[in-house]
Amino acid sequence: MVAVDSVEITASFPEWLKKPDTAGQKRTYKQPDDGNVYVFVHLSVTEKNDLFIEMTERRLTKTHLVDDQGETYFSVQQEMSFNFLNTTYPKKESGFIIFEIPDDAAPVQLNYLYQYREDASEDQDIKIGQIGVELK
Questions:
Q1: Which of these, 10, 7, 16, lies nearest to 32 by C-alpha position?
Q2: C-beta pairs of 20-28 under 8 Å, 24+ apart in sequence
Q3: Distances (CA, A) of 126 to 23, 57, 102
Q4: How far apart are CA 134 and CA 103, in angstroms?
Q5: 0.70 exceeded by pTM
Q6: Phi and psi angles of residue 30, each rounded to the nearest 5 degrees, phi first
Q7: Cα(69)–Cα(106) distance, integer angstroms
Q8: DSSP label at residue 22
Q9: How far apart are CA 3 and CA 83, in angstroms?
Q10: Using an 8 Å Cβ cutoff, are 73 and 101 in contact?
Q11: CB burial class (10 A; 0-12, 13-18, 19+) of residue 126?
């Protein structure tokens, strides 16, 4: 099960996320396009079940955000540990997903996609499931 801990909307890249420059490397952080903001959705995996998928089998899926006008946005960045999406790793994990949306839109739903098999048989196709979480 996935739970949204908080939603943060910001017109610039947040200071808490910036990393210091290192010797010979100056870091730059892209600002949202004109008329847009960043939406950080902080979430946790609160329950993990064996979905019969190994990390080496993972397929590309895109969790997405829906706004109050019905528009869909795909993540621009995800910050989660390696084990965040590993359903066989027992520890509960937290992370965040970043979206860029117009500043006059309001995020209303996160559609979190995950992969699974109905049983442990590796000859079975991998299926894609979705958990819709309303944002307030």
A1: 10
A2: none
A3: 44, 9, 34
A4: 19
A5: yes
A6: -70, 135
A7: 8
A8: B
A9: 16
A10: yes
A11: middle
For 123, the token pair is 């000859």
Eight-state DSSP code of residue 25: B
Tens of pLDDT, residue by residue, the chain (136 residues): 778 999 999 998 888 778 888 888 887 788 899 999 999 998 887 766 667 777 666 666 778 999 999 999 998 866 554 445 544 445 567 788 889 999 999 999 999 887 778 877 777 888 888 889 999 7
What was the pLDDT predicted at 50?
A: 66
**Residue 129: what residue type?**
G
In 3-state terms, what secondary structure has residue 15? helix
Here the tokens at position 126 are 């991998």
* pLDDT attached to residue 124: 81
Both structure tokens of 50: 């064996």
